[in-house]
Structures are given as structure tokens and as C-alpha cells.
Amino acid sequence: MTTAVELGKFSIGVGDRFAHQAKAQLRACVLAAQAGVDAIPVWNKSNREHNIIGSEPSSTRAAADAAVKALGWTKPYFCDADHINLTTADRFLSSCDFYTIDVADAIGKPASATSIDTFARQHASLAGKLQLENVSEPIEITPEMLRSTAAKFLFAVQDAGKVYRKIEAAKGKGNFIAEVSMDETDAAQTPAELLIILAAIADEGIPVQTIAPKFTGRFNKGVDYVGDAGQFRREIHLDVAAIAWAVRRFGLPKNLKLSIHSGSDKFSIYAAIHEATRQSGVHLKTAGTTWLEEIIGLAEAGGDGLALAKEIYAEAYAHRDELCGPYATVIDIDPAQLPSPSAAAGWTAQQFTSALRHDPRSPAYNSSFRQLLHVGFKVAAKMGRRYLDLLDANEAVIAKSVTENLFDRHIAPVFLGKPAPSAILEHAETK
User: Pseudo-torsion of CA 13, 92, 4, 38, nearest 10°?
Assistant: First the structure.
């Protein structure tokens, strides 16, 4: 399969809840180019997030376009209709050129017996031991596994095909990036299952450029990976090899690569991601880490900014069950570790930011505090102009936090494989 619009080897999904940080986010990609790597920005915002904030996809597009114009960015950039399905796709058709087709809810629903039989017959040659390039461990697929995997995933892939064709009818073939996402489900997909899923995607005629499986371990929002880092390293190497094999075997786009969702702040596995994907490329989705940098920037500014940050925390604390419910599978908050709002109200700016900023070396860092604020953007949304006006008033300090967080903590270790060069960071401070 060939595509007219191509994503590029390395790309980074950047969430911007309130459409105020696009320029600061893009500046991190400018710094990446100066450091020797093209990091293609993809501004992603889901239907759920638009509903919570009361925004429309057109606002994401407008912010991205304005940032590109302001910084003179000449490389590709995209706006992602994040986690869409048949019922939500229409809202994004006019503003987006990247579509994350989410099939997690359809996994496990049975396809017709006829389609399962046909799939198993057409791909019977997959049964056996497959030796993939650059990995010593073969992938073994039995005839029984081929059928059981088809029974579990074929309906979901067929559903993705329906969504893809809906988008194609509106946008035209080759005019957008297609991703298939199955990360927001209970069980991780094995590399063997991923290979079978890719066969089904090829059968559906979806020119998928990124695929987001669920990995083993927990990818909680805004905090480090929880799980066996060694197992993840083994798994991602096998996944990359399985994708390369599937591209050759099934004629999928040559630039097909892994998409790692909830990828922000997964410091303990960034070396493994870089090692496995430095040749194939990777799409890293960072999402809400920028929203947290807004809160950090407001707190650092002191005065009204710090007072508002404390107020947002107090409201999030009071409504934590409501805020955490939609994100229950991707957060792990210990209520006993949450400071009381009255205690937090007495904190200095440094105490607040030290608890919130993701620095595992700091004894003040509080992952439960960070995760609660991560899902607490609804509180800020209800504040309306009061919150947005403070973002405008403190743009310089917030932008600095956003740029350095995205470049230093994410782009540098994942795409460059090393800490950010000090000269580049100095540039970030003075730009």
C-alpha cells in the first residue's frame, strides 16, 4: 500500500487541552531539528476532551496553524482526531488529517463464523514458527491460535475498516494518516497476535501508518511505567520485528510504525523504546503532560497563578471520584498520599511545583498528587476566562516549562537517545 501523505520516521503527539501551548510545543520540535532529528508534531485531542472543555476540533487546528506560522515551521504537521469511532468521526472531518481509529470496545465481539473461516483459510501459512529479523526469539503461531485470535480481533478490525472508509469518502484516498488503536483494553496483545491483527488490517485495505497495541505493564497518565521493564524491552523488539515482517508480507505501508499511547513520562522504558525503534521510527503520544506544565508554570509565577493552582487542586480533591472515573484504567492514585487542600493551601510555589513536577529523584515528588491534577483539567475548564486569562498573563514562564518538558524529558531520550545537549537547553531558555 502507498500513501500520498506520510507521517515521517519520528513523530510526537502533543495534547493541548486549552489550545494555548501550540507554539511552545512546536518550539520543542524546532529544538529537535537543531539537535539533528525531525520530530513531526501531531496535535491530538479526543472527543471526550472536547466535550469536557467545550471546544471544537477547529480550535486545535487554528492553534496549530498559528504556531506553524509564528515559528516559520516548514516541515509536516498534523491534527489528530484522537480515539474516534463511527459515531464521533464526523465532528473531526473538516479539521483533522490524522485519525486514531479506536477499536478497543469492539475487541472480543464475535465476527461471523464465515469471516473467521475465510480469514483462517487465507492465512493458514502463518501457522508455524516465524523467524523475524533482528530478534533471536521466533514467533510461533498454531492453527488454533490463528482462529482464536481472529475470533477475538477480526470484528474490531472490520469495524476499523468501516471508520476508515467513512473518513476516506470525506477526505479522499491518501490525504490523511490512519492509525488503529487498541491500547485502551484489559489485556495486552502479544507480538504474535499483533502480526495476525496486521494481516486482518491489510485484508480490510486500511493503509495504516501507525498502530497502537496495548503493552504489558501499566501506562498510567503522566507518571512512569509500572511493570517489568525487561519484559517490555523484549516485547517492543518483537513488535517492531513483527511489523517489519507484516509490511513485507501483506503490502502494508513501508513507514508503518508503533504508536505508544500514554507515552509521556515513561522514563524507565525510554531507553528501550529508543533502542527498538531507532531504525523503524515511533509515534510517541504525550497528551496531558502539557496541561500539567501549565499548572506548574502558574504555580511558579506565584501570586494569582499559585492561588489558582491551589484552588484547582482543592476542587479536584473534592470531586476526585467524578474526575477519576473515566480514567480508572490508566491512573493509580493512593488517597492516603494526597495532601489535604488545607495543607496544600499553605505551600510555597516551590513546594507545590516540587510535588507536581515529575522528578523521581526528588523526595517531594508525589505521583498521586500529579495524577489527580492530570485528570483535573475539567476543573480549569469550568473556570473559563479566569483560567485562560492567567495563562495569557503568565505565558513566558509557562511556555518555558512546556518546551523544556517536551524536549528535555521526551524528545531527547526517545528520539535522540541521550540527554538534551546543554546548548540546546540554553537556546530554549532564551528563544
Answer: -20
Q: Which three cell numbers stand for residue 389?
A: 486569562
Q: Are residues 171 and 209 both part of a single domain?
A: yes
Establish if 98 belongs to a structural domain. yes
**263 Cβ contact partners less than 8 Å away, ≥ 6 residues apart:** 13, 219, 284, 285, 286, 410, 414
Domain of 281, in residue numbers: 10-287
Q: Are 431 and 27 in contact, with CB atoms under 8 Å apart?
A: yes
Please indicate, yes or no, whether residues 145 and 157 belong to a single structural domain of this protein. Answer: yes
Q: Both 258 and 295 in a single domain?
A: no
Q: What is the pLDDT along the chain (431 residues), one digit of tens a residue?
A: 867 899 999 999 999 999 999 999 999 999 999 999 999 999 999 999 999 999 999 999 999 999 999 999 999 999 999 999 999 999 999 999 999 999 999 999 999 999 999 999 999 999 999 999 999 989 999 999 999 999 999 999 999 999 999 999 999 999 999 999 998 888 899 999 999 999 999 999 999 999 999 999 999 999 999 999 999 999 999 999 999 999 999 999 999 999 999 999 999 999 999 999 999 999 999 988 999 999 999 999 999 999 999 999 999 999 999 999 988 888 999 999 999 999 999 999 999 999 999 998 899 999 999 999 999 999 999 999 999 999 999 999 999 999 999 999 999 999 999 864 433 344 333 33
Asked whether the whole model's pTM tops 0.85, one would answer yes
Q: Are residues 176 and 200 in the same domain?
A: yes
Whether 4 is covered by a domain: the verdict is: no
